[in-house]
Design brief:
single chain; 329 residues; alpha/beta; seven-stranded mixed β-barrel; 16% strand
Length: 329
């Protein structure tokens, strides 16, 4: 009996040890038959994340957090994760840290960076280290809410100081002015609508006139086609040819007349030069006509002769018998 009790106790202790081992493995999310790949990400802070936390992709656990180390110089935090090697990560991946439950547990989730483009990821100079972003926890959200409440209280106080009875009256007057302006705009729009209707009527009448003009043009083209088909165009062309021939004959006559006029002009020019030479000689007193024009003695003699002739004619009128004796046989 003693040996049997010892065996039972040993089996119970062994079962408890195995249960503790498998429970620990289950709690840590370890998969002994799974091949893992190491993934690192850089964060500005990690919040309440601890080693052993879950790593998820599309909400499915695919690994666990192995270590959390402060970057050299303190500029960031490097989180190392063991991820199932069979899982294909998205293109341009990033890691987001967020609370997993209300009990303070945090998780790391691998997401496409394009899914949350507004986050300010912590970039790493090493391309093998993924960029990461840590969502604020409840404590930070409470602090932010407290700051927002304080700002709202300040704004409320300033609003109470600014919004007085005078401000309310000014707002009322502004609303009345806006209503008046709205009524004026309504009247103006009504007038503009009437003007637009008149313009539309004018455009319609213009369109009708244009349509009538198009009909007239089409009719004219039809008449032209009819004239061409009836041979009127050929008659016009033949008349134009005859007119062109007559014009050529007239041009020939005009050319001959122009040549005759040129000869006449040359002859007239020669005659005018001769007349000019004669006139110049007369002015110089050359020849009989020149001497007659330049000799004043002959002129005076002619004047005296004219006087004597006029005196003789007067005497003949007074005493005709002195000069005329008629005898009848």
């Amino acid at each position: 009996m003693n040996r049997r009790n010892e065996v039972v106790v040993g089996l119970v202790v062994l079962g408890g040890v195995l249960l503790a081992i498998f429970g620990t493995i289950w709690m840590l999310g370890l998969d002994l038959g799974r091949e893992d790949q190491s993934v690192k990400a850089r964060f500005s802070e990690v919040g309440q994340l601890l080693a052993g936390g879950n790593v998820k992709f599309r909400g499915v656990p695919i690994g666990r957090v192995e270590s959390i180390e402060l970057e050299r110089g303190g500029g960031g935090v490097i989180v190392s994760m063991a991820v199932d090697a069979s899982v294909k990560l998205p293109e341009d991946p990033a890691v987001i840290l967020a609370p997993e439950s209300l009990f303070g547990d945090w998780q790391a989730e691998i997401v496409p960076r394009s899914a949350y483009p507004g986050y300010r990821y912590a970039e790493s100079p090493d391309p093998a280290v993924l960029p990461g972003y840590s969502l604020p926890d409840m404590v930070r959200l409470t602090a932010v809410a407290d700051q927002i409440a304080s700002n709202l209280a300040t704004i409320s106080t300033r609003f109470e100081e600014a919004f007085t009875v005078e401000t309310a009256n000014n707002i009322r007057l502004a609303i009345e002015n806006i209503q008046e302006v709205s009524a004026q705009l309504t009247g103006l729009l009504s007038k503009q609508q009437l003007a637009m209707e008149e313009v539309a009527g004018d455009l319609e009448r213009t369109s009708e006139a244009a349509g009538q003009a198009a009909i007239a043009v089409q009719r004219a083209f039809s008449e032209i086609e009819t004239a061409i088909g009836g041979g009127a165009l050929q008659t016009i062309v033949r008349n134009m040819e005859r007119t062109t021939g007559r014009t050529d004959s007239l041009v020939s006559v005009l050319l001959a007349t122009s040549r005759d006029l040129r000869v006449t002009a040359v002859t007239a020019d020669t005659a005018l030069r001769n007349v000019g030479q004669i006139a110049a000689a007369v002015q110089r007193g050359e020849g009989t006509l020149g001497k007659l024009l330049r000799d004043t003695t002959l002129y005076m003699s002619l004047v005296e002769t004219n006087v004597e002739v006029q005196a003789l004619l007067r005497d003949i009128r007074r005493n005709p018998r002195r000069y005329i004796n008629l005898r009848v046989f």
